[in-house]
């Protein structure tokens, strides 16, 4: 059985103020986050950032040297995520998830639109990530998102197979489709 199978539950989109209030009301801790917005003097191209935090995401975003400051005036949204199928994910596990998401985003939108300065290479191990996009109320999954939001760019299912440095395969399913509902 593969060890690197992760269900990432994303919540949002938030403003910084909404995120602070929401995090205080939750019984769980989010350790990974996504931002998107526009840099100053840019007319149409959005920038993206994926990061991790050992504290609350809101406290991490308040750091004076954080990349959110580059897009703060034109911030579109913040998504807070947690690896929900691992009881207490280690820092290495969280970094591994961040690494594949950052690398995937860089491939999708281009490195020049990423605020991250590192993590553009995929890990040297197999990974399977399922992304779920939850509304702020934690009750409903998003059915539709804006085309420029991270939830629209990141696939719902991402599988990455590393055989060796010359033999890498990636599969994705952009959006999972509900086929039936049972009650």
Word description of this protein:
- The mean pLDDT is 89.
- Helix content is 22%, strand content 30%.
- It has five helices and seven strands.
- By secondary structure, it is an alpha+beta fold.
- A seven-stranded mixed β-sheet has the order 3-2-4-1-5-6-7.
- The chain is globular, with a radius of gyration of 16 Å.
- It has helices spanning 16-24, 57-61, 68-71, 91-109, 150-153; strands at 5-14, 32-37, 47-52, 75-83, 127-134, 157-164, 167-173.
Strand content: 25-35%
Tertiary shape: globular
Rounded to the nearest angstrom, the radius of gyration is 16 Å
Distance between the termini: 31 Å
Proportion of helical residues: 10-25%
Lateral strand order in the biggest sheet: 3-2-4-1-5-6-7
What structural class should be given to the helix and strand makeup?
alpha+beta
Order of helices and strands: EHEEHHEHEHEE
Major beta sheet, specifics?
Answer: 7 strands, mixed
Indicate the topology.
Layout: E1 5-14, H1 16-24, E2 32-37, E3 47-52, H2 57-61, H3 68-71, E4 75-83, H4 91-109, E5 127-134, H5 150-153, E6 157-164, E7 167-173
What's the short version?
This protein has 183 residues and is an alpha+beta fold.
Pick out its properties.
183 residues, alpha+beta, 7-stranded mixed sheet, 5 helices, 7 strands, 22% helix, globular
